[in-house]
Amino acid sequence: MNPHISLPRQHSSTFGGIAPSSSRSDAVRMPRFFKRLFKFPQMDFELAIWEMTSLMIAPKKVFRSIYYHKQTKNTWHRPDPSFTYLLALFLLLTALAWGVAYADGVLPTLRITLVFIFGHFLLASLAVSTLAYVLVGRLLGPGSGEEALEFGYCFDVSIRAFLPVWVVLYVVQFLLMPVVAKDYWISHFFGNLLYFVAAMYYTAITFLGYNALPFLQHTELLLAPVPILSILFVISLFGFNAAKHLAPVLWCGATLRKHV
């Protein structure tokens, strides 16, 4: 399934000449999302898989398709938890792998699983979504008119931006840990490069997500972290091994010392 919707970007508060009827108080509500939370037959897992593939190779396509959703559902947010469920499942599998490799027993592995899914993914995504809802809506919003940033859409952007972080730091880094956690400069370089790529991916997808909304202005400001991340990456090459100090499993109380 590969929708191709390409409409010109417009900085206006209307869509297709029709002013949306939703107010900002309605924008924060996600009743349809919660109603479909356990209705698995109604979830579009095919679309979620297409989005995951596209986010890694052509992320702009994912956010182009929201125009079609806005026209048919009159909301930017997709009240379908299929993407969240799939990514949570993938995190479960990688958490088990990290647990088998670095945890001592079943309970530590369970702790890693819970921290990965509910801490790193859901809680962090909710925190970023809340921050974006407040700051992006106020600083980059139209300032007037009925169109408003939806909290549900902010959550959509956050969980989709987390996908490349999972791929790079939870999958690729796990496979390369015996190499990138060594005390050699080349290990520092490739290990730190993983974190740099993950952060750049997260920033780029976040920008594309909000840039797709026609009523937001100056969304290029969301790319401000790019030069900062570039400088930090260069500085980190002089002695700081990100893989050895920031690996996801370390935030769960596990250790790397006996495995690298």
TrEMBL record:
Where are stretches of biased composition, namely Polar residues? 9-24
Give the protein family. Belongs to the unc-50 family.
Keywords linked to the UniProt accession? Membrane, Transmembrane, Transmembrane helix
KW Membrane (keyword) present: yes
The record's section on Pfam families has:
UNC-50
Q: Per its UniProt record, what InterPro entries does this chain match?
A: UNC-50
Q: Does the keyword Membrane apply?
A: yes
* UniProt-annotated stretches for the region Disordered: 1-24
Name the residues that span the membrane.
83-103, 115-141, 161-181, 193-210, 222-240
Q: Where in the cell is it found?
A: Membrane
- Look up the record and report any one GO term of the cellular component aspect: Golgi membrane
Q: What is this protein called?
A: UNC-50 family protein
User: What is the recorded membrane topology of this protein?
Assistant: Multi-pass membrane protein
Q: Which domain of life is it from?
A: Eukaryota
